[in-house]
User: Fold this.
Amino acid sequence: MDPAPLEVSRPRLPWWTLLPGWVKFVISPAVVVWLVCWLVWQAGRVVYRYPLSLALLAAGWWSYSGLGVWWVCALLVLVLTALGLWWWRHRSSFERFALRRIRTEFRRLFVYAWEWRTVMRLSELAKDKRGKEYRPTLGRVRAEGWRDVVRVRMIRGQAPEQWELHASGLAHSFGAQSCRVRVVKPARLELDFIHSDPLAFSIPVPALAEDTAGVDLRRVAIGRTEAGKPLRLQLLGTHVLTCGVSGAGKGSLLWAVACALAPAIKAGHVRMFGIDPKGGMELGQAPEVFEQVVYDNGSRAVTLLESLAQEVKRRAESYRGRRRMWTAESGDPFLLLVVDELADVIAYQTDRSLRDRATRAVQAITSQGRAPGVCVLGLLQDPRKEIIAFRHLFSTRIAMRLDEPAQVDMVLGDGVRQRGAAAHEISENTPGVAWVKEDGKREPVRARVFHVTDTHLAQLVTFLTGRTAVQSSAEVVAFPNTHQTERTGGAA
Assistant:
């Protein structure tokens, strides 16, 4: 009989069992002290992780042993009544201080700690070596309603990429819609188990500010992240590339930027230039915002691009030896170029000469315009390399709803989709939702830009020009010469 099926790992005795008896007697006090410290440490960990549950258990046991079961019921009713009044009168503080703590302790104990060992083994994230099991350690858990943030300490030899490959299985194992992996520090991960979408509803644009001091070109508020924080876009010292299919919300993004910069535009500190190859279907809604706007991709657009490229070179020469980065004290306004459909200018132009000139001008602006105070906000639908080969010159990239999973890595960078940036899964019912990735930051941010309507654009034009914006309306009139049309067979 083949002996291989009968072979098992040889049991290994702990090293301290091989020590002589007198050595064990000498080190026994130190061992006792170590065991006491270990027990105190474990008890402290339990108290730190479940303070509310332990406090309620201690209060219930004290009431039952000292006062009786009726007093326990009375105190329980009193506590529930107080919690109900708190929830009724101050719901936000109740959810922040009470409900979140209760949900956190419950989910940590009954969802994660209860199944942690089994899930780690079945997901092949735990390893066996010479009969000893090495298992990732479950750390702090924070339940925020729409997601659970789980801190994990990896075992030696593991990499975050291994967890990213098992993210989908981890989400299904713990009853979540999806799982994202974020690196906190060496050997420490945070797993975001998503349960619902906090960005399911549109976010109205805030009122226009009057003071130019509130406009920070490094932190322009254009929306809100899924964590409830403002989405701030950096314009100074970077270029922004936004990609998304038709109807993904690219228009709301560029108008949200214009609304945030409105006080500086009115004061002359910021000047916006625009190119809309679609005949002005987007930028033509509020042309007063722009210093100059072109509604095609022909010679006028190329001339505008080349003039901005010359301005970049002029500023670079004037700043030489004086400053390394544009500031308001330079006397030059900050320039923002908005190209609504960048592919129409540098890829779809049939005239090869114009296409080459436009490509050279855009490359000159994006490669040299950061320090002189010139930023390009490019929007397009097709992120393929043959469409725009210099995506690396855009430090900030935004991916709205996309068609294919491969397009996510084209826009945000290789491996970003595995870390949870599923831009191809954004619903058609949530325009404006996007993933934002900045150079130097490993993790992308999911957010939703402000929803800018025609009414907000009219208010923006009124704010900048001081006159009421007139919105065109259609008038329904009777078709002329009805009887004559009928006699000619409907031809008109």
The chain has 15 helices and 16 strands. The chain has a mean pLDDT of 86.
